[in-house]
């Protein structure tokens, strides 16, 4: 459930008409709903009521906006980060360092040193090489790094191949059959406090079965490690729960996910950690856009050319992803059209042969479910600059990220003197 609903024939974000935001801030613009973020944070937490000890870290990669992080931090969420930049954002948003978990296969020495200095809560170590390097850096500093070892359970999450992370040939985690050996060796390093395991098999999961299999494999590993004398106190179950992108689509609910987790992890006697991203932020945002023109196309469906493009919302171009597309002031008439942006490549297509509200030049529309992996994946391709972000709260709103025009981007570029 989200708070982007029609009132008096036009679409609102909570109590603010989207048309007002378009007028005052311009388009394209990402619009987030605070009430929706808070609702999703609460629903996800309540779904885990059956889990005695838990830590929920919002996957910052899904929406790193400082105001969004502040909202979730206030809900008691920590942060799952995958770069020094994300860590600094989480800290800047007021999330306590102890609540931060650092994942990712390519943590640099600099990032690990900074994270140690900041005293983050946990490193999810993705390889023996990384563990050894982290140990050396921590030792130099006279610090101890709390770590979980991320295992690759070799399970097909059944999602888009570009966002699947738990198959043996994906780059993530250590091979399942090598995990105990690696855990043993890393545990002997005095500057590492090996305290648990981590797993994450992919994103936008539409089926709980692969997750359950992965968790069962982690449970088996947990038992093996304990049998050989390791004290394992934490298990990070990652993120991955999918969200409906199409009106009416039904996905496993947080409650079903929570029930499965409670059942599979019963008796583990650990603090369970979670890293949800999309399920919290996805439906809490829309990309608001204006139709530039409708390009008639003979007998073929017309092209609705909107002012948002693949640089602003990359998911359709990258993954063939579906985003519902609705008029802000629907007339009741419908059309079938290709929805495209202004960028000069055919990949800049949001939808083909889409049955949607009838639209004409100047009309406003939204791409829904754009709160996760939307603004954060933007680029400035075709020198289009970066789209602003707005957070709505009841009947007020604030611009929480400014539009960055191309001039500001090229201000960081230099023409060397020797070019004349
Ligand atoms: N934890 C780890 C270690 C991850 O790699 C991810 C996502 C998450 C948590 C959060 O997963 P979520 O709950 O959001 O599914 N750009 C893609 C999604 C990439 C996800 C990468 N990892 C998209 O737009 O669909």
Describe the structure.
This protein is of the alpha/beta class. The protein has two domains: 4-32 and 283-410, Lyase, Ornithine Decarboxylase, Chain A, domain 1 (Beta Barrel); 34-280, Alanine racemase (TIM Barrel, Alpha-Beta Barrel), CATH 3.20.20.10. The protein contains twelve helices and 21 strands. The chain has helices at residues 18-25, 34-47, 66-74, 84-92, 109-118, 128-141, 179-187, 209-227, 254-264, 278-281, 315-319, 406-410, and strands spanning 4-7, 10-13, 16-17, 29-33, 54-59, 78-81, 100-102, 122-125, 145-152, 174-175, 192-198, 234-236, 271-274, 285-295, 303-306, 325-327, 334-340, 349-357, 364-367, 389-393, 396-401. The strands form three sheets. Strands 4, 14, 15, 16, 17, 18, 19, 20 and 21 form a nine-stranded mixed sheet that branches. An eight-stranded parallel barrel has the order 5-6-7-8-9-11-12-13, surrounded by four helices. A three-stranded antiparallel sheet has the order 1-2-3. A hairpin with a 2-residue loop joins strand 1 and strand 2. The longest helix is centred in the middle third of the chain and has 19 residues, at 209-227. The termini are far apart.
Whole-angstrom Rg = 23 Å
Q: For this structure, what is the CATH homologous superfamily of the largest domain?
A: Alanine racemase
- What number of domains? 2
Output the CATH topology of the largest domain: TIM Barrel
Described by strand count, sense and barrel closure, the largest sheet is: 9 strands, mixed
Q: What is the CATH class of the largest domain?
A: Alpha Beta
Structural class computed from helices and strand pairing: alpha/beta
Identify low-pLDDT runs: none
What's the total helix number? 12
Q: What ligand species are in this complex?
A: ligand LLP
């Amino acid at each position: 459930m989200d708070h982007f609903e029609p009132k008096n024939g036009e679409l609102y974000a909570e109590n603010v008409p989207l048309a007002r935001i378009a007028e005052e801030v311009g388009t394209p613009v990402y619009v987030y709903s605070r009430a929706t973020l808070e609702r999703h944070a609460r629903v996800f937490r309540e779904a885990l009521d059956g889990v005695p000890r838990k830590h929920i870290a919002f996957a910052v990669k899904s929406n790193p906006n400082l105001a969004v992080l502040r909202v979730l931090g206030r809900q008691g969420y920590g942060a799952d980060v995958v770069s020094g930049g994300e860590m600094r954002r989480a800290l800047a948003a007021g999330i306590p360092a102890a609540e931060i978990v650092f994942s990712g296969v390519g943590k640099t020495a600099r990032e690990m040193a900074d994270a140690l200095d900041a005293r983050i809560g946990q490193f999810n170590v993705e390889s023996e090489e990384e563990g050894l390097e982290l140990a050396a850096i921590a030792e130099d500093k006279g610090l101890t790094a709390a770590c979980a070892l991320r295992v690759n359970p070799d399970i097909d999450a059944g999602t888009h191949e570009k966002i699947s992370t738990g198959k043996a040939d994906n780059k993530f985690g250590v091979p399942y059959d090598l995990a105990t050996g690696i855990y043993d060796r890393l545990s002997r390093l005095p500057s590492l406090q090996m305290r648990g395991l981590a797993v994450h098999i992919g994103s936008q999961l539409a089926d709980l079965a692969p997750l359950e299999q992965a968790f069962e494999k982690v449970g088996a590993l947990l038992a093996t490690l304990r049998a050989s004398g390791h004290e394992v106190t934490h298990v990070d179950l990652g993120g991955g729960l999918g969200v409906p992108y199409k009106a009416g689509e039904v996905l496993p609910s947080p409650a079903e996910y929570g029930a499965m987790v409670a059942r599979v992890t019963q008796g583990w006697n650990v603090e369970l950690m979670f890293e949800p991203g999309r399920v919290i932020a996805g439906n809490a945002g829309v990309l608001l856009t204006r139709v530039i023109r409708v390009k008639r196309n003979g007998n073929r469906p017309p092209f609705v050319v909107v002012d948002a493009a693949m640089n602003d919302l990359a998911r359709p171009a990258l993954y063939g992803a579906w985003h519902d597309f609705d008029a802000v002031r629907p007339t009741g008439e419908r059309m079938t059209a290709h929805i495209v942006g202004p960028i000069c490549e055919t990949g800049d297509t949001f939808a083909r042969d889409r049955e949607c509200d009838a639209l004409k030049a100047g009309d406003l529309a939204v791409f829904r479910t754009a709160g996760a992996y939307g603004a954060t994946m933007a680029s400035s391709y075709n020198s289009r600059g970066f789209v602003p972000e707005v957070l709505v709260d009841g009947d007020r709103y604030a611009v929480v990220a400014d539009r960055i025009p191309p001039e500001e981007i090229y201000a960081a570029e230099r023409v060397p003197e020797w070019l004349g």
